[in-house]
Write a structure and sequence with these properties.
about 270 residues
């Protein structure tokens, strides 16, 4: 145990010696790679700040900051530094590819911001392929399927199947025939259960009206319960369709992110 602790202290001491020495030189990219690969987050940021003090190129410092905040998933700061070092960052194929993969699964507002400034004439084929994936899930669902990698096409077709469908129509269908909207949303098991439960509650309400009269308290309760149940079915179908559209898109983008991560063979440096 003492030997392990001694080795750890030696590595930490050596790291700080390197960090101190690097502050008086130009940007040491192998050292930055070492910090990144070993997840020395605090030391990594300290090194960037020490280089900035030495009046290095502002583009280079912004570039290092952009890569740092991309690695540690701070979207807003990454984007800010990216804009300050865009030509330099885009020229780094691996870093730019990593950013494109990362934003596939980021929140939608950041996706729109990132891909909205995309210039396909300045990017490599791999990054353009990622851009096509985002384009296919952003309203342009009629994109040529040949642009989608073969291994992702089944997921894309599943997404496309539901992307066209309307939550409002799902609600209307469930109003006409309880459960039909759930079938439209791809919830076929829920469809049958919903239909049977509505038939059961409807038959009970009808029987209460015939035998007890419409003014009977039990009849009023049955009618009220059936009305709420019927309305909940309509809203549920509307909500299910919205959820299916969101989830199929999300899953497609996750699968795409995994696919490109495996095939990019790029680290951060």
């Amino acid at each position: 145990m003492k030997r392990i602790n001694r080795n750890r202290y030696c590595k930490t001491f050596l790291l700080y010696i390197l960090l101190w020495g690097s502050a008086y030189s130009q940007i040491n990219l192998p050292f930055v790679k070492y910090l990144s690969d070993n997840n020395f987050q605090r030391e990594y940021l300290a090194y960037i700040k020490s280089i900035a003090i030495k009046n290095s190129s502002s583009d280079s410092i912004a570039y290092l900051n952009a890569k740092y905040y991309l690695q540690y998933k701070n979207d807003s700061l990454f984007y800010s530094y990216f804009l300050k070092s865009k030509p330099l960052f885009v020229s780094d194929t691996c870093a730019f590819t990593k950013a494109n993969i990362y934003f596939l699964t980021s929140n939608r507002s950041m996706q729109n911001k990132w891909y909205g400034i995309y210039d396909t004439t300045q990017t490599n084929y791999f990054s353009r392929s990622i851009f096509d994936i985002w384009l296919a899930t952003s309203g342009n669902i009629n994109i040529d399927e040949k642009k989608i990698p073969q291994k992702l096409r089944s997921d894309y077709l599943k997404y496309k199947k539901y992307a066209h469908r309307s939550p409002l129509l799902a609600g209307v269908l469930s109003a006409a025939v309880p459960g039909l909207g759930k079938s439209y949303a791809g919830r076929k098991q829920s469809c049958m259960m919903t239909l049977l439960s509505h038939i059961g509650f409807g038959a009970q309400t009808y029987e209460a009206i015939n035998k007890l009269g419409i003014k009977n308290p039990f009849t009023i309760f049955s009618m009220s319960f059936f009305g709420v149940f019927y309305a909940a079915n309509i809203y549920g179908s509307y909500h299910d369709m919205k959820d299916v559209k969101i989830q199929t898109r999300k899953q497609f983008l996750i699968d795409a992110s995994d696919y490109y991560t495996v095939n990019s063979s790029c680290g951060f440096y």
